[in-house]
Amino acid sequence: MNTTILHPDIQDFISQNSSVSITKLALQKNPFPEVDWILILNQIEAKTKAKDKLPTWFKTQNIIYPSKVSVEQTSSEKTADYKSSLISGKTLIDLTGGFGVDDYYFSKKFDIVDHCEINEELSAIVKHNFQQLEVENCFCHADDSENVLKNSEQKWDWIYIDPSRRNDAKGKVFMLKDCLPNVPESLDFYFEKTDSILIKTSPLLDISAGLSELKFVKNIHIIALENEVKELLFEIHKNYTGDITLKTANILKEKIETFEFILDNKSEFPSYELPQKYLYEPNSAIMKSGGFDEVSTAFKIGKLHKHSHLYTSEELITFPGRVFEIEKMIPYSKNEMKNELLNQQANITTRNFPETVENIRKKWKIKNGGNKYCFFTTDKNESKIVLICRKIT
Q1: Which fold has domain 74-262?
Q2: Burial of 171 (0-12, 13-18, 19+ CB in 10 A)
């Protein structure tokens, strides 16, 4: 870890230039010739990336940043904060500590947090930053987490793991066994050290694929930030054999939209309805969950079609997703499209529809944007329809 960048003049320079283009800065002469210019530029670029994602780090003095890739790959503060609310106890060990954002928030809920990071330089950076952030109950281990576990007699309340995909796994169907550490292979060993494990995976992982590789799964959490799925979490407890609950959260500026249901609950039967006054589109976390029938039964709203994943009701309800008022419904036909949408401006969404958004725009010369929202979909009678709507939320 190079601490020369902690010189007050260099830190001031980094802060003052945190919003300046790196390409532009790189052409300038290094004002600190005793320090590698690339190192300073990396600090500026990484700090710029942290501004919105890691505001606590951005605002704290004398933070050292690793490569911008490490900042890009780490959890955001908002997802880390939410994640820390899901579990509790006295001790937690993070087997894949990285930049330490998750552990910063876990340290607020646990008495002791152990941060394992095999990259010695990154471990030293995290240790330094925790001091700047006044975190006193998080202990950094610059070692392979397997060694830390094997060399300790301790048992932790929780093990947290964020496995990274191996480079040689590119192009394959994404599986946990293709990651480091190989969690499915090591589960029995982990359960010698804890009774509870939280595994963070890529949002690209198929939920059923994760379930096929793991055992004792109690809860699955899907976390979205501003309607973009960021994390898929598997919560497993030693010897658990009950129902699996799937919990979704969409973190927005003013609120968190949550929804949960029992996986494979055979008693859920959706109702299918033709479009009524209001239209509902689930948020991305619910879309990832696959709980489409459960949405219909939980909110007592009709589903347009088995595969459309759009919902409708006569009375307006509070809903975890986008809500629209249907102003007009037209069949998808040449005459209707000419009369209603040719050469118009509209936001277009397709759900269970044979044509792409791009093709629809090109065919009917529809410009993007405006206050009109058009859903091209299929109703319960297998008719291709267009719902022209006004957005409510």
Answers
A1: Rossmann fold (3.40.50)
A2: exposed
Pick the CATH number of 3-72 from 2.40.50, 1.10.3470, 1.10.8, 1.10.10: 1.10.10
Which tokens sit at 324? 């629209």
Tokens of 144: 């392979």
CB atoms within 10 A of CB 211: 15
The pTM assigned to this predicted structure is: 0.93
> Could you give the angle at the alpha carbon of 181 between the alpha carbons of 84 and 132, nearest 5°?
45
Domain ranges across the chain:
3-72, 74-262, 278-391
Maximum CA pair distance of the chain?
Answer: 76
Q: What is the pLDDT along the chain (393 residues), one digit of tens a residue?
A: 788 999 999 999 999 998 888 999 999 999 999 999 999 999 999 999 999 999 999 999 999 999 877 888 899 999 999 999 999 999 999 999 999 999 999 999 999 999 999 999 999 999 999 999 999 999 999 999 999 999 999 999 999 999 987 765 555 557 899 899 999 999 999 999 999 999 999 899 999 999 999 999 999 999 999 999 999 999 999 999 999 999 999 999 999 999 999 998 776 688 999 999 999 999 999 999 999 999 999 999 999 999 999 999 999 999 999 999 999 999 999 999 999 999 999 999 999 999 999 999 999 999 999 999 999 999 999 999 999 999 999
